[in-house]
Amino acid sequence: MKIITNGKIFFKNQFIEEDIFIEKDRILGIGHTQKHDLRMATEIIDAKGLLVLPGLIDVHVHLRDPGQTYKEDFTSGTRAALAGGITTVMDMPNNTKPTVTLDRLEEKEEWAAEKALCDVRFHFGCTNNNFNEIKQANPNSLKLYMFKTTQAQDLCITDEKIIEKHMLNFNKKIVVHAEDNDVEKVCSIAQKCKRKIHLAHTPTRKQIDITKRTGNTNEVAPHHLFLSTKDQEQLGKLSGVHPHLRTEEERKDLWNKLDDIDCIATDHAPHTLEEKRAGAAGFPGLETSLSLMLDAYNKRLMNINWIAGRMSENPAKIFNLPHIGRIESGYYANLAFIDLKKEWVVKGNELETKCKWSPFEGKLLKGKNVRTMYKGKLVYENGEFIDAY
After folding, report:
1. pTM above 0.85?
2. Which of 7, 219, 280, 281 has its CA 20 to 30 A from that of 333?
């Protein structure tokens, strides 16, 4: 049995000074360590001065594997995730060969089983005619694009009848990439079909309001909270992203809707600098998302409980992911150890992601994940990976 002691753990929506008891890959219980516990312990992990969060869950990443592994693969992407305190990622289907058939899904699952270092789940793509493939694959979630994705143009669906058919045929979570006016449109279709959907990377107050009014869930990407058109001059050709960056006024207005944001998801989309300068859209974000939020907390812009809820518990609830997202008996011992006082400067060439750049290059952040536990094993500590990691 392992014991994590002296930290403040996030338990039932508050931070408490209790110890965590771990047996193999699961949390055995929460409480105060007694003398007989110490005799039984195989390892004692001192978390003095640290907050202990459930391992973070990022429901929107692009790991590029297979097909474009020169800019990310399952190993480099999950190393980046673990460095950022993220222990579960959900990979998008828009690879060069999109994940729209059972064979493609099984291929991804096999590659991830061999190469990934943390938990990887897969969204399955919708097309105009892959209903039978969806039935055979029976994925946990679908991704429906109402916007042309660079990697796989045939994923874009604009026919309302096709969208309705997907909603009526699939009874689990559907994630939708809809921009601007299409958000209201797809929420209206969902209401007609008596379905609840999840809106990806909602960048404005208006879109948040639409999702709440229609009873759907949403996610916001860190770059829409922390970057705006005001930053485009400095970023230059690196500023391209979908949905695009909004005005500084719109960015600030998004902060007024924090309570209506359901989860934070990075939309981690690694491209090489050469590709970005040629017009590729998307930002890497796995290693900066938590620190951006912690820095905002240190500046008294948001609540630490809000961060834990939107980056751990809520994503698990939204996508019905069992035994993760909480520090509770029976849950996997996936944990992020946070030093709220640790300052660091974002330097792309020091990141784990293969693309080696960040839109937050040079930014000083206060607050960082300093240790990560995955299924009961410490895999990352103070910038170093342990053993095979």
Report:
1. yes
2. 219
